[in-house]
From TrEMBL:
Residues 2-233 form the ABC transporter domain. Gene3D superfamilies: P-loop containing nucleotide triphosphate hydrolases. InterPro entries: AAA+_ATPase, ABC_transporter-like_ATP-bd, ABC_transporter-like_CS, MacB-like_ATP-bd, P-loop_NTPase. Coiled coil: none annotated. It comes from the Bacteria. CDD domains: ABC_MJ0796_LolCDE_FtsE. SUPFAM superfamilies: P-loop containing nucleoside triphosphate hydrolases (SSF52540). This is ABC transporter ATP-binding protein. Belongs to the ABC transporter superfamily. Macrolide exporter (TC 3.A.1.122) family. It comes from Mangrovimonas spongiae. One of its GO terms (cellular component) is membrane protein complex.
Length: 233
């Protein structure tokens, strides 16, 4: 699914720079469910954003589904993002003036589908996350867990090969976090490859593999016995 070799990333800070990623090597194969852990500021989001083509590394190699990701035009990057990737964020990132259905339908618009087909597909995905009855509600009429489920439906609408999640449970209470994790595990059971950032140990243990970042490098990369989330919901 993806191979990363010797990836480096710095941010300019005034006259100097902050070297955040200092030679990351990481491979993820189809069907994995990986947690990226590390303390605040350790570069988790930076790495995920590079993997998600929202940001670019300074050096190193990145191959996603056989495609070398380097020096892409913004247009090409957008095409690959839409084709390969779905995103979930801590703060949901829904569009506030669009209802649940319209939010989920948005990636399908960029795929060039006709309106009717977009609506049908979006409704199918909303039903999958148990929110068919909420299709015409705006985000501010939904609970946090419901918003994240809309965001998951949106992330899945274009059938991405890889789902990227940056602290997907970070804004949710414990019970709702486990509900969302149960849902994400179910997607992985169905074959979706998932890469998620979290700083919570119990959430990471619900993945199948944990990668720990420290001082800009991967200091640990281990397979774990997946804790099932549904037993807590
Ligand atoms: P994490 O997600 O692990 O908390 P980040 O990847 O967000 O860490 O950030 C890593 C470090 O890089 C932090 O010190 C952060 O302040 C810094 N950083 C992140 N984004 C930028 C940016 N756009 N410009 C400058 N510094 C940044
Ligand atoms: Mg972060």
């Amino acid at each position: 699914m993806l191979q990363i070799k010797n990836l480096h990333k710095s941010y300019p800070i005034g006259d100097s720079s902050l070297h955040v990623l200092k030679g990351i090597d990481l491979s993820v194969t189809d069907g994995e469910m990986v947690a990226i852990m590390g303390s605040s500021g350790s570069g988790k989001s930076t790495l995920l954003n590079i993997i998600g083509m929202l940001d670019e590394a300074d050096s190193g190699e990145y191959v996603l589904d056989g495609v070398p990701i380097k020096n892409l035009t913004e247009k090409k990057a957008a095409i690959y993002r839409n084709k390969f990737l779905g995103f979930i964020f801590q703060s949901f990132n829904l569009i506030n003036y669009k209802n649940a259905l319209e939010n989920v339908a948005l990636p399908l618009y960029y795929q060039g589908l006709k309106r009717k087909e977009r609506q049908e597909k979006a409704l199918f995905h909303l039903e999958k996350v148990g929110l068919k009855e909420w299709a015409h509600h705006l985000p501010n009429e939904l609970s946090g867990g419901q918003k994240q489920r809309v965001a998951i439906a949106r992330a899945l609408a274009a059938n991405p090969k890889l789902l990227l999640a940056d602290e997907p449970t970070g804004a949710l209470d414990t019970k709702t976090s486990y509900e969302i994790m149960a849902f994400i595990q179910h997607l992985n059971d169905e074959g979706k490859t998932i890469l998620m950032v979290t700083h919570e140990e119990d959430i990471a243990n619900m993945c199948k593999r944990i990668v720990r970042l420290k001082d800009g490098v991967i200091m640990e990369d281990t397979k774990v016995d997946q804790v099932r989330a549904e037993q807590y919901v």
